[in-house]
Structures are given as C-alpha cells and as structure tokens.
Amino acid sequence: MDQSNFMLENLRKHIVELDAEESRRAAREAVDAGIDVESILSKGVGLALEEVSRRYDRGEYFLSELVMAGEVVNEVLTEVLPRIKKGENEAAVIEKGTVVIGTVQGDLHDIGKNIVSTFMSALGLSVIDLGVDVPPERFVEEVRRSRAQIMGLSCLLTTTLPAMKRTIEALQESGLRPTVKIIVGGRPVTETLARELGADAYGHDAPDGARKALKLLGRE
Amino acid sequence: MVRKDFAKINRERMLKAIDHEEPDRPPVALMVNAPFFAGYAGIPIKEYYTNPRKMLRAQLIVRERFYNLTPIWADGGVAVEPSALGGEVYWDTAGNPQVKPFITDLEDIDRLEVPDPSRDGWMPKQLETYEFMIRNVERDIRVDFGYLVIGPTTVAGMIRGMSKFLIDLFKNPEAARKLLRVCTDTAKVWVKAQEGVVGETDYGVFIADDAASFLTPKQFEEFVSPLYKELYGIFPDYRRWYHNDMKSTHILKPLADAGVEVFHIAYDVDLPAAKEIVGDKICFVGNVPPLEVLKEGTLETVREACATLIRKMADGGGFVLSTGGFINAGTPAENIDAMVESVEAE
Hints:
The complex is a heterodimer of chains A (about 220) and B (about 350).
Chain A: H1 3-16, H2 20-32, H3 37-57, H4 63-86, E1 98-103, H5 111-122, E2 126-129, H6 136-146, E3 150-155, H7 161-174, E4 181-186, H8 191-197, E5 201-203, H9 206-216
Chain B: H1 6-18, H2 34-41, H3 45-50, H4 52-65, H5 80-84, E1 89-91, E2 97-99, H6 107-111, H7 123-136, E3 147-150, H8 152-160, H9 162-171, H10 173-198, E4 205-208, H11 217-233, E5 240-244, H12 252-257, E6 262-265, H13 271-278, E7 283-288, H14 290-295, H15 299-313, E8 319-323, H16 333-342
Parallel strand pairs in B: 3-4, 4-5, 5-6, 6-7, 7-8
Antiparallel strand pairs in B: 1-2
Helix pairs in contact in B: 2-4, 7-10, 8-9, 8-10, 9-10, 10-11, 15-16
C-alpha cells in the first residue's frame, strides 16, 4: 500500500470510529502530504461515511452516532477546505451541485436534515441550509437566488406532511420546477408518499438521501 | 355499538392486561392530545393551550363523544419543563408551544436551576389549569393522565439543541450528564407538584421521552436509565408509564430494566418482536398507524389493522390496543369508533 492510500485509510478509520481529534490530524497530514482534495473527500471522507451508513443500516450504529459522524466530518472539512482553497490545488475543489435544504414549515426537528446536509457536503455538494420551520416561499426564494439544482425537504411530524406538499406546489407555481430536482425524507415519508407528493427522489435515511442527491445530478 | 358501561369494563380489562393477565377481550386506549382535542372541538389550538376553560371544554366534548375513554388533564405540550428551566415559549406555525434552545455554551449548564413549580415558566399555569379542571368537572370524572413529565433526554435536547446534545454525549459527556441531572431534578419537582394538586392517580408516573431513542443502547443505559429509575422510584406504588414516538426496539431491554411497565409505543415498531425481547416485563399500548390507517384509512383498513394486532398480541395480556402515537387532528370519528369496536369483534 502506498503512502497516500495508507493515509486515506487512516482517515477513514478515525472517522468511522467517530474520533474527531484523530480524524482532523489524519486529514491535516493528508493535505500536508499533497493528496488532492477530491481524493480526500471521495476516498477518505466519502468511503468512511459509506461505512458509517452501512453500520447504521445493519443496526450496529444508532442516530447519535450518525450525528457524531457528521460532526467529525464537519471538523475534517473545516480543517481541510480552507488550507486547500488558499493553496495551489484550488482548482481541484469540485462542487458537484447546489442543494437548498430545510425542515418544512411547522416542524422544528433538525437532526435528519443536519445529518443529510453534512453527508451531502462531504460528497462534494454545496449545501444551503435554511434551518427549521421554513415556509414554502422561503424555499422558493432561495432556490431562485442560488440557482440550486436540488431542493431537499425534511420533516419528522406526520402533521407537517401537508407543508411538504405545499412547498413542492410553491416551487411548481414559481415556474422553477423544470430545472430543480426535489428530494424528500423524514420519518413519516415513504417511497410511495414521495411519489404522490411529486418529489423526484426519496431518502430513506440521511446517507441514502445524500447518495440519491448525487444520483439526481448524474454524479454518483 | 359500544355499550354504556364500556369505559368501566375497559378500565378493568386494562388493569388485567397491564398485569399480564388475559382479559376476556383486549382493552383499548384512546391516546389524544392538543391537536385532536382542539380540532375536534373547533377551538384554535393556541386558545386551547392558554385558556383552561376552553381546554376543559374541548376535552369534555371529546370524552363524551368517545365513550368516556379519553383523559382530562392540563395539557401543556412540550413547553412546561423547558420553559420552567428558563426557555422562552413561542408558537410554531402549527400553533403548538415550543421553546428554542438556549444553552449555547456548556458553562450555561452550571447556571441552570431546578425550577420552583409555583413560580417558573409554564408550571404555575399548568397547576392552575389542573385546579380549574378539578373545580369544574362533574364528581364522577377524574382529572388524571398520570403525573406526566417530558423525559430528561427530550428536555435536554430541546434546551441545548438536539444535535448539540447528542454530540455532547460523545465530546463532553460530563456536561451532558450534568444537563440530564438538572432535567431529571426538574421532572422530580414537577411530578411532586402534580401530585400536590391532582392527588392520587389511576395511571401512575408517565414519562414521555422520544429523544431517548436517538441514543445507542449503551448511552441509554449509562446516561438515562438510572434517571428513569429515580423518577419512577418517587412513587414506588404507582404504575410506570412511558411514551416514545420514535423507533425504540434497540433500547427495549434497557427500558424494561429501567422499570418501564406500560409503554405507549410507536407505529413502526414490530410489536410481536418487541414482546419477544421484553417478555412480560412491559405491557404495550399501540400501535395502529395514526396517520396512514386511523386518519387516512377506510373503516375496513382500520378494522383489519386492529384485528391483526389483536390476533398477534392479545394472548396472555400485556397488550392494549391503541394508536402508535397520538391520534392526529382531523381523524374521522367513525374510524376511531371502528378501533374501539374492534376489541369486541370476534
């Protein structure tokens, strides 16, 4: 195994073990060794999150561990991105697309939305997080302003499903719908319901949501 | 057709089921809170929460319509404990009271004080609501839904911010522990204050703690389980009720070990599998899907879902037919009737 692969494997291991300090150190060393940012994101962070996701699917990891994985990745990105943007590898920073994301109106739950945002960022998407209890018109306004390719809607309460529907309708009424893909997720949402709501994709959990977003952009 | 004395018979069946004896027919519980009460009575939800007269009226209307099966109590949503700890109450767009996180720095935890229920946040208002209700209901109606508290995990997550709190469990475990301690001490003074006003309860101590499901089993055992034991231990002779709307299969065993006795469980938990895990330690109350089946289903789908649950769960007791989560606003009354009637069906 060459030095780069060894360093990326080390980074993956620490992220999967949810060790923030060691993950930051491993990421810093990878940058110092000249490993390009795309490799750090895809072969380091991306593969680590896939492993976290697999463990979650198998019932070995739980929600708090997904949240912590997101925190570890945020710390890694905080460490890596500024150093690279200042350096000569700036052109290597590839943004695969822009996502406007939020928890729909009437719903204050942010965990799922926060995790999926982190996973999307780690996979190279530019994420604009509108927070919680977001009115439909605010989603539309931000999609228009940012020229986002994807709108991501999250909810936890069954009672806020109508707000998800209203948000999708608002995007349709704005005329922006043909250029924007919609992905939905959250506890009461199902594949069938997502189709009925008029979404393009459904994420059954946060990692799945991030993967599907990439798929919608043709950037798997 | 539901018989006149159904509530009394149902109550007896429920007590048997909780004791894991098999009643002649399975009992049913209608778990209703603010959105359904206010919606059914045609009262704006904010007025329901803030006007004791309107809250009582809404609850009595629902109780009378649904065979005296629904409880009467001071319903404060999730705002009572967090507001008493210093959080500012605001109204979300659905009209429910909420409290924004206010523990921005870990040092803020040291400044938290266990509330005085006669003075802090929504607690005095809730106690006054209880007193109003007790004064104004007919003598044969009990004001009682147990000594109900929002559990320490949920309150900690609300006032710190849920993601931050979950991260604290990994990065700042001692701070998380301190926060949970204050939230538990808050719950302790709150259950005692409720006892002071309500008197004896037919339900027991009722902890509602959805956020506990976000933890790993190990975190739950380490951080939360001892706190539940403390809370339930205040009234050792009372039943130990629990509500959790999230998937909880992974913490079922530790929940049983923490003393949970009657569990109002979420709609997406496999109940027979849950029963396998805890045996006769927990009586499950659930878990007809409140949205897909009870609100949006036909009479036939409601009957089918209830019959399936009864077939799988009723043998040997330890089961109360109910919704997995509270009944949604706008649920058709005839669907609720179908659920109630299903316990008498062959």
